[in-house]
Amino acid sequence: MSKKLRIGIIGTGWIADAHIVEYKKMPDIEIVAGADLVPGKAEAFFKKWDVEGVKCYPDHKSMLDAEELDAVSICTYNMTHAECAIYALQKGVNVLLEKPMCVTIEEAVDICRAERESGKIISIGFQPRLDPNMQMIKKIVESGELGKVYYIQTGGGRRRGIPTPFGTTFIDAKTGGIGALGDIGCYSLDMVLNAIGYPKPLTVSGYKSDYFGTRPSTYPTHPEYAKVFGVDDFAAAFIRLEGDIILDFRISWAMNMDTAGDTLILGTEGGLRIPSTECWNGTVGGPMKIYHEVAGEQVETEIPIIKQQGEGLFYDKIRSFLDAIKEGGTAPVPTSQIIYNQAILDGIVKSGKLGREIEITIPEI
Ligand SMILES: NC(=O)c1ccc[n+]([C@@H]2O[C@H](COP(=O)([O-])OP(=O)(O)OC[C@H]3O[C@@H](n4cnc5c(N)ncnc54)[C@H](O)[C@@H]3O)[C@@H](O)[C@H]2O)c1
């Protein structure tokens, strides 16, 4: 048997659980190192998961300086994604980076430059892409069934769903950096942009607000969280994409409405309706429908929900990354696409602050 891949986990919080569960199923890897800023947290994490012999470190740098690793899972909060990913790439380590890629477009550019200089693989953790229903959206667009796509409405809504189950790292600007935008907005963007081939974003007129996050009554057991809240709990934007495509976007962690609406993809030959979910988490909410004409008649074609097979999306996300390393392949979810996702998130924040439309410019990598 060939040598096992030596894996490190940076950040041992909530989502690291989902990574370690899948790594434990894989006989061709060994988890050799872990790091967390909170003293004792990494040690407790590996103990909880019954993984022995893992060397624990107080931060990503000390781990990457000391260990010879093939790959790391970066499961830290958004604000440290860029520094961890860049340092790992500089050390010649392949990176599976949790979504969102980072917080700002400047960070995204720095990550892409570090990737280019390292020659290593960095894949961004958008596991909903591996859902066969999501893949069906892309297949429908690529089949030409919709004709030329010219307008997309997307986003997701939670009536109340500000994530604070394990503390304040999602809502504190110092750790989360961005709120609903980075938590779930990036999924909606990936769903539609991936389907249409990730065209370049050109301009954005964005808006963001924090009316719910800053209210003590939002957190009945932790009213003090309201003072910590420093990110967006709602955002909306009108984005122009290359290829004369309009993207109408909204995302909500909290609002006085049941849904922010279904995702609609309008094309010259057909329109696709993708039902939203009550609590948007990047999954298709029900059977999709294509609205089109057959023999001059306006008809609808229903696309039934496709059942997922195999080990699940998280397994597939990690496996596809590891297989790319082993086979000398390319990143399953490449930064060359996700930089556009990040540019839109960043554009919404910047445009929202300025109160006007802005042009999106991405420097040469
Ligand atoms: N793909 C998904 O389905 C999914 C789901 C939930 C969260 N996420 C993403 O995962 C990331 C982490 O979320 P979470 O809920 O696990 O957060 P969390 O706050 O529970 O855990 C993050 C951990 O990272 C540690 N950390 C931060 N910087 C570090 C550094 N430089 N070195 C070592 N440790 C460091 C923190 O101490 C903390 O323990 C977020 O970016 C989030 O968007 C993805």
TrEMBL record:
The keyword Repeat does not apply. The keyword tRNA processing does not apply. Pfam families: GFO_IDH_MocA, GFO_IDH_MocA_C3. GO terms for molecular function: nucleotide binding; oxidoreductase activity. Keywords: Oxidoreductase. It comes from the Bacteria. Residues 5-126 form the Gfo/Idh/MocA-like oxidoreductase N-terminal domain. Residues 135-273 form the GFO/IDH/MocA-like oxidoreductase domain. This is Gfo/Idh/MocA family oxidoreductase. It comes from Ructibacterium gallinarum.
